[in-house]
Amino acid sequence: MAGQLSDRTRSRFGRRTPWIVLGVLAGGLSLVGLAFANSIVGVAIAWVLVQVCYNFAQGPLSAIMPDRVPLSRRGTFAALSGIGLMVGALGGQIIGSLFFNSLAVGYLFFAAFSLVALTLFVVFNPDYSSKEMPAEPFRMGDFLRTFWVSPRRHPDFFWAFTGRLLLYTGYFAVTGFQLFILTDYLGVSEPQTVIPLLGIISLAGILLATVVSGPLSDKLGRRKIFVFISSIVTGAALVFPWVSPTLGSWMIMTLVAGLGFGMFQAVDTALVSEVLPSAKSFAKDLGVVNIAATLPQTLAPGVAGAIVLTFGYAGLFPVGIVLSILGAFAVWPIKAVR
Question: Rounded CA gap, 34 and 23, in Å?
Answer without folding.
Answer: 16
